[in-house]
Each structure stands twice: as structure tokens, then as C-alpha cells.
Design goal:
Elements: H1 2-68, H2 80-83, E1 88-92, E2 98-103, H3 104-107, H4 117-133, E3 138-144, H5 158-177, E4 184-190, H6 201-204, E5 206-212
Parallel strand pairs: 3-4
Antiparallel strand pairs: 1-2, 2-5, 3-5
Length: 213
């Protein structure tokens, strides 16, 4: 009787261990399957992330190339009021942005950054055109000079002079012509951006107002 009971106990223990081992093995296999699934998911996500990054870079390149390409657009219509202003030219730049160019020979004395009376008259007409035709646009006021080096002037370089002249135009447009200051941006190019590739020094000495809509 005791032998039978001992044998039964041993069999029960063995069966318990066997079943426990099976349960542990099943749990281990499930864990391994989950780990494998997570690794595969991570690999897929990394691939998708690389693809999205590559696509984004491609879009950025396309946008940059598009920004650098000349834009075909309708020419600016003739404007008798602007045509009547001395020293004022107008048109579109190579990116399709309207611009108004005011000759520095009219607006400033040589080597100076103080507006002349003729310059103020021209800028009043320019301001009226900007406010009437481009409300809410951004106005890039850009100073330009010719290639002659600074000699008899207090300015250290042509770029300094171009910035000072652009600032003088900004102050006049804002303070005397009611052009909103927050719509204006000032830049000075010095001698580095001649008028449409022109070698005419008088055309290169200018302040341009480029309209960004």
C-alpha cells in the first residue's frame, strides 16, 4: 500500500513538473514570437522613416529648384503716373516679382544718403503706387551702387552706402508716405547686383522696391 502511494506521488510530481515545463515552454515561445514581431515592426518603421526622409529631401530640392527658376508672368502694364516720374523704372524681376527702381542719380547726391527734393517727389509717386496696387504685400527696399570704389565719402564700402540709401528710402516711405513699416524689409547689395546685367553705371546706382505678394 505504501509503495503504491509513493509511486502515485512520484507520478503526480513528475506530471506536475512536465505540465509546468510545457507551460513555461509555451510562455517562452509566446515571448519569442512577440519579440520577433516587435523587431519586424521596428525594422518596418525604420524603413518607412527612411523613405519619408528621402521623400522630404526630394521635395525640398524641388522647392529650391523651383524658387531659382525664372517665372514666366505677364508684363507690368504701362503706368502713366510712374512714367511721368523722373528716374523711375518698373517691371518684373526674373522671379516674376513686380519692382520699382528709383535712380540714385535722382534721389541722392554723389556719395550721400540724404534724399533730394526730386528724390522725395519720385518716392511719393512710388508710395502711392505701392499702396494702391499692392496692399498687404511685403516691400523689399534694396540699395545698389555702381562698381566705383568709395573715395571721397565717409562710407567704408559701397555696401554700406547702399544700406544707408535703402534706409533713407524706408524712413521716407514710412514716415512721410504712410507705407506700413511692418511690410518693409531693407537690404544693401552694394555693387554686386547690376541692373538686369547692365553695364550702365547710372542704372546700377539705384534703390529698388521689390514687391513680394
Amino acid at each position: 500500500m505504501n509503495k503504491t502511494r509513493t509511486l502515485a506521488t512520484a507520478l503526480a510530481s513528475t506530471l506536475f513538473l512536465f505540465l509546468g515545463s510545457c507551460a513555461s515552454q509555451k510562455t517562452l515561445m509566446q515571448y519569442q514570437d512577440e519579440v520577433r514581431a516587435l523587431r519586424e515592426e521596428r525594422t518596418q518603421l525604420k524603413k518607412e522613416n527612411r523613405d519619408l526622409r528621402a521623400q522630404n529631401e526630394a521635395y525640398e530640392v524641388q522647392l529650391a529648384e523651383a524658387a531659382m527658376k525664372p517665372i514666366e508672368s505677364e508684363p507690368i502694364r504701362d503706368n502713366p503716373e510712374l512714367d511721368a516720374l523722373e528716374g523711375v523704372e518698373y517691371g518684373r524681376d526674373k522671379y516674376g516679382n513686380p519692382f520699382l527702381s528709383v535712380s540714385s542719380d535722382v534721389t541722392f547726391a554723389s556719395g550721400k544718403a540724404e534724399l533730394t527734393s526730386k528724390g522725395k517727389e519720385a518716392l511719393r509717386g512710388v508710395a502711392n503706387n505701392l499702396k494702391s496696387n499692392y496692399p498687404g504685400a511685403r516691400f523689399w527696399i534694396e540699395g545698389h551702387t555702381d562698381t566705383d570704389p568709395i573715395k571721397k565719402s565717409s562710407w567704408e564700402s559701397n555696401r554700406d552706402l547702399s544700406v544707408a540709401r535703402a534706409m533713407a528710402v524706408l524712413h521716407y516711405l514710412v514716415e512721410e508716405c504712410d507705407v506700413p513699416d511692418e511690410q518693409c524689409i531693407v537690404a544693401g547689395h552694394g555693387q554686386y547686383t547690376p541692373f538686369a546685367g547692365s553695364n550702365d553705371k547710372s542704372r546700377n546706382r539705384r534703390v529698388e522696391i521689390v514687391v513680394h505678394q
